[in-house]
């Protein structure tokens, strides 16, 4: 009986480790993707602001 409990506990810990590792990787990829999007957005907003401010000073 104790063997079954030990096997069950080990499989639960292993499953939890697998889920945590996978979730961590997914979150890391999504944050990286958002970082890239914000970089592009920042570049576009900066270009628009430069265009508007330069236009106003001419």
Which features does this protein show?
1 helix, mainly alpha, 97% helix, 58 residues
Strand content: under 5%
How much is the average pLDDT? 90
> Quick one: biggest sheet?
none
Shape label: rod-shaped
State the total count of DSSP E strands. Answer: 0
Number of helices: 1
Low-confidence runs:
none
Distance between the termini: 85 Å
Order of helices and strands: H
Q: What's the Cα radius of gyration?
A: 25 Å
The percent of residues in helical segments reads over 70%
Helix/strand/pairing category = mainly alpha
Describe this structure in words.
With 58 residues, the protein is an all-alpha fold. 97% of the residues lie in helices and 0% in strands.
Short description:
The chain is 97% helix and 0% strand. It has 1 helix and no strands.
Topology:
Blueprint: H1 2-57
